[in-house]
Amino acid sequence: MSMEMSDTKSARPVTPVTIASVRGLKVHFQSKAGRVHAVDGVDFDVRDGETLGLVGETGCGKSVTGRAFLRLLPVPPGILAGGSVMFRPQTTCPDCQGDGCERCDDSGRRPAPCPKCRGQGCTTCDQTGIESLDLLTISDARMRDIRGDRIAMIFQDPSKALNPTLTIGEQLGEVFLQHRHADLLAAAGIAEDQPGWQASALRRLASQQDRGTDRLLVKLSGAMRRKHRAIRQALDERIAAALSETQIPNPQRVMQSFPHELSGGMRQRVMIAQALACDPDLIIADEPTTALDVTVQARILDLVRQLQTSRGSSVIYISHDLSVVRHICDRVAVMYAGRVVEIGDVEQLFTNPRHPYTQGLLAAVPTTRTPRGQLAAIPGSVPELIDPGPSCRFADRCAKAHGPCASHDPALQPVSAGHDVACFLEHPITTASRARA
Amino acid sequence: MQLRDYIIRRLIVLPILLLGVSIIVFSLTRIAGSPVGVYLSHEMSAAEVLQIEQRFNLDKPLPVQYFYWLKGVFQGDFGWSGVASAPVADVFPAKFAATMELSITSAIVAVALGLWLGTYAGVRRNKMPDHITRIVAVSAASLPLFWFGILLLIVFWANLGWFPVGRSTNDIWESIAHPTGFYIIDSILAGSLTALLDALWHLVLPSITLGFGGVAIIARMMRSSLIEELQQDYVDAARAKGLPERLVLKRHAKRNALVPTVTVIGLTIAFLMQGAIAAEIIFRWPGLGRWMADAVVRGDQATIMTYVLFTSVLFLLANLVVDIIYAKLDPRVRLGD
């Protein structure tokens, strides 16, 4: 399928600013058999504007890691057992108002200043002056402000991730109503601090906090009805604009449609439009093309890539499809049994894989020269993740396993610039660290 | 198909269905014997009986008798009720209003309480409120209505004396006019708070008895379909948009969970009509159900026919309403295809 895709990769030079960093993330699930360590100490950074691939087989914890960014984990049985997910939200560059200038590197965006010191540098922001949030510990209300606005998610199966009983317009509109009601009210000529019960009622309606009586008021009062119609119109314009950005033909008609009236590709375009509606800084794309036809996949991938580049958003692309990841990602993190075993630039990792698991994965990708009936596979199966002991998780299946693999836990360490591996073959265990363990 | 076309089509079919229902019920009641009994007394001679049979066309073949009955219905003559010692058409409206008042109140109790309990339990799955709701619902569904009614009667009427039986306190009932026959509406129209309180007070025990089984069924259905909807991806997608949990529940999960629950609510309405018979007997409610029970025992065929005809109309209309709500809730439902 890579033949069909136009090469849109690395359209923008990667800046080494990190927008999010995951440190020691642990997500466990309580089951009857014990505690399943689904994600068990994951570390990686997401740089501003890059696409980071998160690859691994089913059950390796890649989706759970992605969902941890939005705290969309079922708790219980899920347990956030430790670690942090630090996120640096971006705002429009105050110097150029988004047009692009020297100070923001022509991106029109700058990291939001630390609210405590207003960018001067204090102990909260570690003297950087940049706001940094731990997504695992911030309040629910703060999390909701970030969801859909600063961090958005594209789900695997758009036919399940869209509500079958609401129109596309209603579902997309929710994002704007939730995060952009100030704009909508401004478009309808209602100031943020305008006094009076009518303005208050319209403000509640625009921010989806309406009481039962507010709708009645709009029905009864002609003046309010006109204002409300102006809000709806501003909303419809934004919905139509978001839809046409994802190259959906005839957005006016699609807005009125229900999900079941659209094709799979169209539905995923709607999901993408919904995710990108508020120009998020980070997009979690959880296998966005798995449920689609191969012919549609390439176009969707190009679309994501193109929209991401134009906005300078970062993407975490979760997938088990190595050819797709190689095509669209800047860097790749390979996950196995709840750990990142190797991370690096896409070319380095694909041409020079260092971890035996990554090597096995790449060898298992069939090519046109693979003879019939001779698909390569990694022997053995993924270990049970119930209360694992200190050992390399891959040791049982690894052809090169030796002494320390069964008794010690390897850590991610660099092998070259921008390429880290967690393997004792690359970083032989020293007597000192052995004694420490 | 357009909703309007569907409603029109269903309303056209309605009389045909009623005709079918009436033929079946007419045949079945006539199997039980001639309805002449309600016109007779012990002093009558054989010749007099024959005369009465001729007068009411009971000596004719069954299809002809049916034809005469149908002709009467079209003329507003539903026959003579032996139980009420009056023409059916004269007694029917008041009894019908009494039963409707009880059934509608019970339906409101069942639907409102059922949906609320089901949502409450579904959101708190496997926590204490859910377990308590489950116990209440399962016991409510398995309690026979007549037994539960008698239990309430013994405790709250016989022992505690908190609630009355019957439909009204006689003096208060007679103090106001009854243009609609619905006690609650009549008391509001008359502007009498005493009468309204009297109406509601009398409704408490019978409507709880009648609505209780419905509460259980609706609550269980709502709970399980809400739990199922809450596990769907679109619920997480709604959360990922930043929607507060209140809206995730109200606009997304709950609305979709209502789709299967509405079907159950439709069935509950049929359940209420059956149950009304027992509830009316227990609480001395002067409605159709009690009249019907007497009519069955005493072979009052005109009353039976009328009762069946009207409950059929109600049942078919209730089903139509359920279909319409169904189509409104779920755009994927295509009516009439």
TrEMBL record, chain A:
InterPro entries: AAA+_ATPase (IPR003593), ABC_Ni/Peptide_Import (IPR050388), ABC_transporter-like_ATP-bd (IPR003439), ABC_transporter-like_CS (IPR017871), Oligopep_ABC_C (IPR013563), P-loop_NTPase (IPR027417). It is an enzyme of class 7 (translocase). It catalyses: Ni(2+)(out) + ATP + H2O = Ni(2+)(in) + ADP + phosphate + H(+). Residues 22-362 form the ABC transporter domain. Its main location: membrane. One of its GO terms (cellular component) is plasma membrane. It is a peripheral membrane protein. The keyword Coiled coil does not apply. Signal peptide: none annotated. Keywords: ATP-binding, Cell membrane, Ion transport, Membrane, Nucleotide-binding, Translocase, Transport. CDD domains: ABC_NikE_OppD_transporters. One of its GO terms (biological process) is peptide transport. The keyword Hydrolase does not apply. It holds the Pfam family ABC_tran. GO terms for molecular function: ABC-type nickel transporter activity; ATP binding; ATP hydrolysis activity. PROSITE patterns: ABC_TRANSPORTER_1, ABC_TRANSPORTER_2. It is found in: Cell inner membrane. Its EC number is 7.2.2.11. Belongs to the ABC transporter superfamily. The complex is composed of two ATP-binding proteins (NikD and NikE), two transmembrane proteins (NikB and NikC) and a solute-binding protein (NikA). This is Nickel import system ATP-binding protein NikD.
UniProtKB/TrEMBL annotation, chain B:
InterPro entries: BPD_transp_1_N, MetI-like, MetI-like_sf. Residues 96-326 form the ABC transmembrane type-1 domain. The chain crosses the membrane at residues 12-32, 102-123, 135-158, 199-219, 257-284, 304-326. Pfam families: BPD_transp_1, BPD_transp_1_N. The keyword Cytoplasm does not apply. It is a multi-pass membrane protein. One of its GO terms (cellular component) is plasma membrane. GO terms for biological process: transmembrane transport. This is Dipeptide transport system permease protein DppB. The lineage of its organism: Bacteria, Pseudomonadati, Pseudomonadota, Alphaproteobacteria, Rhodobacterales.
